Amino acid sequence: MSIIQVLDPFVSNQIAAGEVVERPSSVVKELIENCIDAGATAVTVEIVDGGLSSIKVTDNGCGMEYEDAKCAFLRHATSKIRTADDLNGISTLGFRGEALAAIASVSRIQMWTRPKQAAFGTKIQMDGGELILDEPFGAPEGTSITVSDLFFNTPARKKFMKRPHVEAGYVQEVMLRAILARPDIAFRFVSQGRTVFLASGDGNLENALLCVYGKEVRGLLRPVKGSIPGGTFEGFIGDITLSRTNRKREHIAINGRPVNCFAISLAVESAFDTQLMVHKFPLFALSITIPSDAVDVNVHPAKLEVRLREESGIAQALTSAIAPVVMRQENPFAHLYREPQKQQTAPRVTSQMLFSSASSAKPSEAKSAPAQAKTRSTLVARETAPSVLSTPKYTPAPVQTSTTAKPSASVKSTLQKSAPPVVTQKKAESVKPTVPFCKACCTAYHRTEKGRNGCTCACCSTCTDACYDTCSKERSTCSKRWFLCRASQGRSSCTHFLSSDRTAFFHLSDAGSRKKASCY
Amino acid sequence: MAEATTPMMQQYLELKRQNPGCLLFFRLGDFYELFFEDAELVSRELELTLTGRACGDNKRAPMCGVPHHAANTYIGRLIAKGYRVAIAEQMTDPALTKGLVERDIIRIVTPGTVLEDNLLVGDRNNYIACVFKYEQDAGLAYADISTGEFSVCIFDAQQGRMQVLDELLRLQASEIIVNETAMELFSEVYRQRLVSMPIVNADDQADYTQSMKVLCERFGYKAVDEIAPRLNTAAVSACGMLLSYLTRTQRGVLDQMRKITPQEFSSSMHVDPSTIDSLELLRSMHGGDKKRSLLGILDETSTSMGARMLRRWVERPLISLHAIQQRHDAVDELLQNEVMRQELCASFDGVYDLERLCARISGTSTSPRDLLSLGSSLAALPRVKSLTENCSSELLKSLHDEIDTLDELCALILSAIDPDTPVSAHDPGVIAAGFDEELEQMRDIEKNGREWITQLEAREREQTGIKNLRINYNRVFGYYIEVTKSYYDLVPIRYTRKQTLANSERYITEELHDIEVKITNAHDQIAQREYELFLGVRQVACQALESIQKTAAVIATLDACNALATSAYIHHYVRPEMNTTGLIDIKDGRHPIVEALKRDIPFVPNDTLLDTNENRFLMITGPNMAGKSTYLRQVALITLMAHMGSFVPAESAKISLVDGVYTRIGASDDLSSGQSTFMLEMNEVAHIIESATENSLLILDEVGRGTSTFDGLSIAWAITEHISQTCRAKTMFATHYHELTQLEGHMPGIKNYCVAVKERGQDVYFLRKIVRGSADKSFGIHVARLAHLPEALLDRSAKILRYLEKSEVNKQAKKIIEGSVKEEVRAQQIGMFADDTSSIQVLAELRDIDVSRMTPLDALNALDALQKKLKNGGTV
After folding, report:
1. Which CATH class is domain A9-201?
2. pTM, entire model
3. What is the ipTM of this complex?
4. Is B375 on the interface with A (CB under 8 A)?
5. I want to staple A441 with a disulfide (CB 3.0 to 4.6 A). Which of A309, A463, B206, B748 is the partner?
């Protein structure tokens, strides 16, 4: 009996799967790359339970013939390269022929596919790597692969998976990078039945950035374009207000493939020079086009890291091209003093108007139209220091002063610290404040939201009290749980709120999406 | 009823007599009471306790009542059950009246005239319709008082009666009033399909002149003059009757109804109610769910007005090329400009339901919250106006121009009404601070008063040394000083005792009394002043009612266009090219509802080609469950979507203008109305053949089932021939009768299509792709196998099928075609020569002549004889 034995392909598949298929997000990444290589213009990704229950990727690419469909899931089977020379000039995203085999071996797969111009398609069903079903099937052009019960036959790996919403977050990251790398593809990302991203696929990178990051980046993106040794690049550089304490907002795509390239990251960051605070990284999205033999993608199994041939030359070119775009800000600290957008103030009218035609409209004293309270409800407390410098008539000021207080373990101390300034502030105001005040501690409510019963709830941040109904000022009965927040200082002098179950910190602006604060 | 009833009872009976057919809510103090039969009915329906009350002459009248502040809920429940409620209020203050308090009906609430929010659905209108029959004509007028809409329908002369009934079904009116002669229009069968039963309204007899007068009074001479020529007598009377009914039940104030809108029946595409149901335009077929219908897919509106407008657009597709293209341009522009679209969505969020707000503001019981909603809606308008500033499409440009931001009114309302205003106008706190000087002074006095009280309290405490002396307020006694038992001895003489309790006693003093009077006075004055101001603001708002309504219509249109653009973005629709050449060419068309809702199986797109020549009639055969019905419906839906201004689910589409879409899909027995499936189908087909024109689109799914095979086949055959030759409408005809596929080539315009199927051994795979050609099998047995019929049964049926297939039907089919063709030729020939037996004899003789054995002279003679025969008509 020999001690060393060749493993059968089934087992070796599972081992390889360990490298390529780490978690649902890697499955999604591999499948998306196949879609893109198939020339799709619309890719839809639907996940359930973060991808652990099911992942469905549909595209309208070139599809596969019956014979091809059957051997797609074999190890080392690929349509992307034929000879070793091809490795030198890889123009497709996938080429190793490993992904589908690996995925199939640790899940239940159902695929239907139909090539263009064919009358009908094929349906393939596999269970843990074994072919169960293959039959003709009426399908639209393109391919759709559904991966269910991931890691059902490797319980050890399954135990290592994080909670579904965490895995969903990883998948979302993958989708985000894919959307920014290929703005010409209409991606749609659906998680638990809710559409998270819906990109238009019109080729406009700015629209893609807006789709992914939302309204907060509107108007804060500066286009940049230029040439580098061997190729060209173009993209958008975000304002320094959009910077974060990690590199998650740096997006680099080389020939349409999202990659991490330390050299390029450094190059762009150095273009910011002293504008950027220490330990903070900017938001940018760059798309670099260079001939495929100038970059080596075969470095990392998941193709995340790449090596560039002309590294230093490219870095220099980037820095010098981007620097002028960044330097256009006059005052580097302007963002700290950013005035909140002027609210539309309706002119004050008195009862004179009712009884005579001549209306003596008294100008308002910075009193915003009360109805606007609906849209402008209590503002973001992110800029803490600035509010002190801003106009004193600005009503949410009490909010700011309370949150600049150092986070302390006990609530009472914050209460005491904040109470005095608030009280005086209140007396100074001659007009009724538009922000409702908490009955218990007299600090302003932070955020108004729709409660579960259709009421309007507001949360008091300092006394960790639950919601109050803004109409009756009574404690709300709908008790939206996550609002039980406690404010504390974040690392980047933003304000964090601790959720009631003490599991995570949120930024107030991310409250709606429950995104964890990344700068924690 | 005995004569010795109490005066109150007499009052009740009098009011009841004036309003038969209504449940009379009689206000008695804090309650609304009902008596006699009303009480019994209501206590049964609403599960209230039935009590009694003496009504004089030692009789006891059954009585049932509800508290007045909860009346609305109960009234709502009664309305939902279809009753009418008359509300009799106390006209004078009972505390000040000697004798009997005057009572009068202030309002009659009927299902079609509700104004309360909780009884109305946001995205639908609540119509009350009136049908008037005068001799042979029928007229229809309908109104929705919650939005101020008043419309009268204009029909063709001949088809008027049918169209009235169709339109009524489409409206789904919650209340229908008719005159006596009109009742006969409503057959038993028809009544089943209505939402509410028609009621004969004998009170408002409306003749032509009277109606005209009433109309002119309300809408002005000019407006009435414009439309009067187009209305027949019945229509005018219908308007008049409806208007008088509304005036009577709402007791006068109907400010929000400002204009009368004529609805041309022929200005919108003809879509009859059964088509609306079978294509699932507004509701799904199973369950009536809006979400699973076309309207559910398209409805991405942010305001209720927009939702109602979109519903109207779906119900009435356009037929004017120009109008359709205008809408397409607008939707196109919004689709390209994603930022504008999202910003519009966001700004519409702040706009409340302006149309219904108008109705409430002009009514009697306006709430300050309504005014506040109006104000905040108007505040959102400037943003909308600035967003649509640079639009290039005609429709958007004209909408932009028509937006009236009503800045003054908005500023007035927002400055005047406090954001935390209470619901009722009579409660304090309605007017915002800083609006009115007088009010501020009075409020100061009140505030000061309270401070005085606090100071007084402190002073008294000091002076008397009573530590827990308190000053409280109470509705019964007013302000008082409360002192607990332990300090009784310290109470000074100037305290007058007012009330004793177990542990404390309550006193007042002169000073306290003065302050109290001042505060109460201030309180009253404040209440009065606030109410005055509130009424003033409301008055200003009422004056601007017409502009508000116009703006509301503009916002509704913008919102509807936005919704169409958003749904086009989400579901990847493309712009259809409209033409008038009769060509419908769809590439990769999809069914909008199925593709959006049925996500587990991928949707296979299909092409469609229909024109006025070679591809007029598409004969589609194939197995069940293979997508035939979906294919038929998707063509109809795509055509309708193009006509209502929306983009369509396809890769590309050329749609020609169609004047009506007629469908015959779905099977259901309507046994309750005494009609079998087949009868219903034949009814529908009859209706379709009668109304269809060359420019219509017909969708017929399996006509001829429900009866024996040969009967059905012959009927289907004849229908095919008729439509393709006489009617010449574009048709898609799905059938299981494969014999009909042989008509292609023999009759112009017919093309065969079938569903692609792949067989592999015993398995059959439906590919759901429509291809040219004809199916020769229906795979019924295969479908039966999928449904798990027993194997033995299936084997036997396969054998029987093979036997039947060998039989003559197919050959006969050929013969029929050839036979019919030959018959035609023969008929033509015979027609050419003669039409009586003698000619036939002559021909027979001619046929029998043996030319080869005749001499020329004989031949000449025979010819002469034959000719004589023909000329003389056969007497030789």
Report:
1. alpha beta
2. 0.75
3. 0.72
4. yes
5. A463
